[in-house]
């Protein structure tokens, strides 16, 4: 399976993985900064239009924790995700655990590959089973991520 959502290519590399790739017209150092700086994350990591990110905590080091929370503008439909960084290689690779509500935990790897000033960012989520992977896909996560990455491109252009 390979689909494109808002300019982001979504593939299923294995029975337990979801990968999302997008190319940005920015160096890896700038994409990394937008991906790891709370003030910038709050501008683009919003999923579908209309959401806000009132919680954005990042302790960017191996063993450091992260926590994100989203809600509609009136505060309704709030939800959170959290995890721990297990690998931090600036401008190149970030690996963390991910816990979301009652879903099984996942391990997410984000790779930043720069060529000629452009960066391909690939996020691969590894889940515990094919059923867990399919359940995550069924939430519309790929659409929300695609729209977020589209906004990330806009944020990068403004920097």
Automatic annotation (TrEMBL):
Gene3D superfamilies: 3.30.530.20
CDD domains per record: SRPBCC_CalC_Aha1-like_9
Pfam families with a match to the protein in the record: AHSA1
InterPro entries linked: ASHA1/2-like_C, START-like_dom_sf
Ranges of residues in domain Activator of Hsp90 ATPase homologue 1/2-like C-terminal: 25-156
Record family assignment: Belongs to the AHA1 family.
Protein name as annotated: SRPBCC family protein
Organism: Lentzea alba
